[in-house]
Amino acid sequence: MAIKLVPSSADRRLLDERRGTRAMMWIMAIMLFLTVLAGALGLATRSASSLLDRQLAGRLTVQILAPVEGERAREAAAALATLRAQPQVRHAAAVDRAALASLLRPWLGSDGADPDLPIPAMIDADLRVTDAAALAQVRGAVLAAAPSARIDRQESWMSPVADFMDMVTGLALALVLLMAAATAVVVILAARAGLETHNDTIEVLHMLGSTDIQVSRLFQRRIALDTLLGGALGAVLAGGVIVVVGSQLGLLGSDLLGGMTLATGDWIALALLPVAFALLATMAARVAIIAALSKIL
């Protein structure tokens, strides 16, 4: 027997519509609004974290810490030549002193450009291979050429940021699951309230030969429709907020925040949330109503 999605006028009277209120629909709109925002936060943070991993994978920074300027220059040249000679290294380039002074200016002011300031020489390098063996071989070759060199993987500097972003992604997923559980609870309460309100009508339906399954379908259709309509409304409003926030992030000029974008698949997943919540509400209503009806009879 097919289940109609749109309830008839007789079906709609089974759930309370006094004063023209559609409390269930508005509750679902609010819950889906928050759920879609939480889901978008998790997906965007995951996207930014993946972009950060791709950008920093195999990136090395070599600092030459020799205290004497001449010795520091010789070691820097030797380290750069050694890096460029390594087959594991895709690219290596010295960082200009003026660029280093510019980076230090917020902390040192104009003193950052002082030629007598012992700023370490720095070299950026990209590895073709990112495994531990390749890194160890490159590290050993550089230290042999420049004993005062300090070699750091850039991803190690950003590991606290990556850990934080992973935590935000997990928190967003937990919020989506929590909202799904809250939706199921709200549906169960609404279904039970409808049963209590229309207990006399349900008894008449049973006397006329209606089964528990048939009665439960009346409630399911109404709850599914309210959840779907309210969820669609909340999802559309949340989508508008996401677009506005995304455009503002793009104006900040931050590579990290700019990487918090949603791919086509992410938008599809967010658009399917109202449908998923409607199915969840339908199943929760069915289980709750059948269980309640079995106790009545």
What does this entry show, briefly?
Helices cover 70% and strands 8% of the residues.
SSE blueprint:
Layout: H1 9-12, H2 23-56, E1 59-64, H3 69-85, E2 89-94, H4 97-108, E3 121-127, H5 132-145, E4 149-153, H6 154-157, H7 159-197, H8 199-207, H9 212-251, H10 255-258, H11 264-271, H12 273-296
Antiparallel strand pairs: 1-3, 1-4, 2-3
Describe what you observe in this structure:
It is a single chain. This protein is α+β, with helices and mostly antiparallel strands. The protein folds into two domains: 9-53 and 160-296, no CATH class; 66-147, no CATH class. It is built from twelve helices and four strands. A four-stranded antiparallel beta sheet has the order 2-3-1-4. The chain is elongated.
Return the domain count: 2
Helix/strand/pairing class, anyone? alpha+beta
How much of the residues is beta strand, in percent? 5-15%
Average predicted local confidence, pLDDT: 78
Specify the helix fraction band: over 70%
